[in-house]
Amino acid sequence: MDAALSCKKELPLYLGRRDHALEADLQGRLDAGHRVFAVGDVHGHLATLRALIHRLKLGDADRLVILGDAIDRGPDAAGVVALIRSDPRLLTLIGNHERMATKCLQDDGRIELWPEWMQRGGGATWGSYIVRAEGDLHVAKQTFADDLLWMDALPTEIVLNDVRLVHAGYDPRKPLEAQTEHELLWIRRRFYRHDAPLDPRRTVVFGHSTTTKFGSRPGDVAFSHVRLPDGRPSWLAMDIGAYNHVDPGLASVDLRTMRIERQRTLRSERWFDAPERREAPVSDFVGLRTLESKRDRRVRPRSSGYATVAGLVLPRDGSCRSWAESQAAIAANELPPTTWRRLRAAASPLRPQGPVLSQRQAAQQHRILLGPGRPPERTHPVLPPP
User: Fold this and answer.
1) How far apart are CA 212 and CA 201, in angstroms?
2) What does pTM read for this prediction?
């Protein structure tokens, strides 16, 4: 395996995939004087991407091409995908993170989260789908599966008259037409350290490798010192690091004028200010805590902390358990000491006419909860002692 690749994964070696109709459309727009931009890895930073689009004043005839890795690590990858798919001005290549995500979709349509992807920022992406589905796992899986099919069909490169757009780069040891997905999505140093142009007619515009590792200054776009015959740089590195700790942001380049525009990562999306974090805590930035608070309001009774709705027990940690589960899973002293009279007094606002405990049940100190809507003629089951 090539040591210049950053991650050694057992992924299929498919040849690169191009969309010739898309390439013709983009070249036609450039020839007509419209603007076509390329932007580096977005990595789920939806608000920052929107700010960049606003800064560019993107018109209806303009196009913005994301160089892969639109998802993972950031706070709202699902929102980024939804924006790209709904806005005709936005396009994207497939990146190594999209390719890892597609491993979650099984042949029978089931979603099985691939551990290698989850360890590399996929947890934040999956969390954003759950949040956008308002906690409905079925809806989240359906949306995620549909987006994975869309990702799987994305092109690996775009070749225009003067530029090549690709996620990671090219292996200089192979002809350009023989490059596989493995090189196009994963290669790093072997590509950008090569001392000769790979395509004498075109500048290669790529992402994947953050310029903080090899650029002149963190947060700036990096240009190759190797020049084409017409004086243009051999390559242009666009991933300035949406979540680098020095000067984070997104950068775009106008493919006609080669003008660079930069948008700093918004303060609301700077999850990486905590050095120990490897991906965005979705609960802080997308609203998972709001969902949790809504759930708590649904299950917590207003009258008492421990007299809960029918058949539910809320221990001190706030988790929700059925009566049978609580008997099997919690210790007898996990709940604070109480008596039947206290429980009945706490539950009486919920069910004023509850059934009466027998002397035998009361003597055995069974903690039976009264819930709303229980028929008065129904008696409590005799539960085994813990």
Assistant:
1) 27
2) 0.72
